[in-house]
Design brief:
Blueprint (H helix, E strand, L loop, with lengths): L2 H17 L4 E6 L2 E8 L2 H6 L11 E11 L2 E2 L8 E6 L5 E7 L7 E2 L4 E8 L2 H4 L24
Parallel strand pairs: 2-3
Antiparallel strand pairs: 1-2, 3-8, 4-7, 5-6, 5-8
Length: 150
Amino acid sequence: MTARRLLPLLLALCASAVAAQFPVVELSAGMHRIEAEFANDMGTRARGLMHRREMSPQHGMLFAFPEDARHCMWMRNTLIPLSVAFLDEAGRVLNIEDMTPQTEDSHCAAGPARFALEMNQGWFAARGLGPGAKIRGVAELQAADAPARH
């Protein structure tokens, strides 16, 4: 096999290895199933989707924060255009922001958020999901560095 034909295979394997470092959770929005990598501690939240060249249509990344706050996201070293939905602790969408690759612009929650769900840009809009929509499956999750809920 030539190096030219081998390179795409190696890149795909590397992307799979990076993705394999995150646990995966299954979420849903209406009838839409989402496979989300789960970034639930400071290290995984900091790494996020950096350096990835693509993401499958029903895949995303769910960030869990230790407390409700006006969390912000940016796109440093992130190569694919994304939309981020900020969610409250029950999984209700507060707001959705489109983000441009490789920028350091802040995209912030409109109110106190516990989660952020990143999907390929336009995913939420294409499914008619906006503020008030419910993402099922997040309410049972929490950040590894969060105090236990009572």
